[in-house]
């Protein structure tokens, strides 16, 4: 595997993908068979009475659809140190922690070598297609990646975020080298104990190697925007560090200071060049290509909740292409972006049929049936339809409802190309109204257009269903880049209310069974405090996603938002 990494042949990777996707149904049957043969001795499967059967029909007849909550008792035993075959044939040695931004607390998810294999296969596949369109030379990558501390569970298992488990794996670095995507920052920066200090050093490393940087990336678009927002505040300090060859005293971690001292040498010419570049920009437009003239593209997950950051990212990227990274979750990968020229808003992901067994629950547009439709197999889905994804992987998740809604946009050979729509459990709903994360994002984008007239922008946003009032109503939290007039903010509030076009919402507002939407404008830095809260819980910024809807279980985040409210407005739109 390691030799294969060092001698990556993109055309061969594409050919393997083409062969595999020509008969995705056959590959799916073989993959399920392999999963069940490797894990048939697991207590969970034994108790379900599969008795060695590995065909899809038996699997569906004996194994129920589950959520994480159903598997928690089994995972808890693994976390606490029970090394018997509980969910998998071989013992699980590593646990991944989900970001915890959806439910308010991280989930424990088994991680093993097979999931690492799938990760590297996804990376190789999307790189091969990307390299056809945007070939990279032998330069470096400015990657805003952060590994949280690897802890131990009660039972002694290694535990970290899913991204940390990938970044800490020695095969990750070999793969990045093979993909011409080697991080310009040393490991001490990636795994530094303080995110803010690591971010500062990432920026500094990028500037030191400014003419070698071929791509700028992070796991999520949010991290890239956050990095360059930070750059706006610290660029002069960075210039001073380069000029004097000495690291800013605010970076106090000894390991970071030691690592950076090996890279930093006095370079007044470079400092002067960067100073002139920054001074010549208009409102930081085109900052990335200005700083890094050889960058080919900006890369990271830019779909779903990350679409909210695209406008700002395009501002920093100027004319550079934005390429959306692949589709997966802490539980496992699903598809690779094999059409890199599509803009992020249109990005699709071709499912790799050998990295898991996939099923798709049709989403009903009507409410007549209260029974959940039977899941369809990978090759049975229909173009234009929406589905909830069900995953069976090599790490002990069987018929696991991922909670993602996807739309089938087409097929590549016989494997579907999916567009991520939203999280299925992220609904703003009070009675007959149903608004998804996507609906919320559209409403905020409409309000952002009102602010744009005042040369202001939305920094970040979240929401809440407030049923403490009668009738209940929606609350939208906005952080704005500057001061807006009362009239503009009131119009923003009305615009948000009008932009939820779901028929159930509009009719409920008209008959006053849902109260006026409430806009709460929070002070500058409120969403940074939410990020800091999650970092304090052990999350990695690479995995952070702003919670778009704050549920009742997410008390601390709600507290942070409410404590930072500067102004409140009630809609007069209805």
Radius of gyration: 24 Å
Q: Can you tell me the overall shape?
A: globular
- Helix percent reads 25-40%
Please report the total strand number as a whole number.
Answer: 20
What fraction of residues sit in β-strands? 15-25%
The number of helical segments is: 21
Low-confidence stretches: 1-6
Mean of residue pLDDT values: 86
The helix-and-strand class reads: alpha+beta
The CA-CA distance between the termini, in Å, is 62 Å
Going across the major beta sheet, what is the strand order?
9-10-11-16-15-14-12-13
Q: Largest sheet, described in full?
A: 8 strands, antiparallel
Walk me through this protein's architecture:
It is a single chain. With about 575 residues, this protein is α+β, with helices and mostly antiparallel strands. Helix content is about 40%, strand content about 20%. It contains 21 helices and 20 strands. The strands form four sheets. Strands 9-10-11-16-15-14-12-13 form an eight-stranded antiparallel sheet. A four-stranded mixed sheet has the order 2-1-5-4. Helix 2 (about 10-20) crosses helix 7, helix 11 (about 195-210) crosses helix 12 and helix 12 (about 220-245) crosses helix 14 (about 270-280). The longest helix has 24 residues, at about 220-245. The termini are far apart. Residues about 1-5 have low confidence and may be disordered.
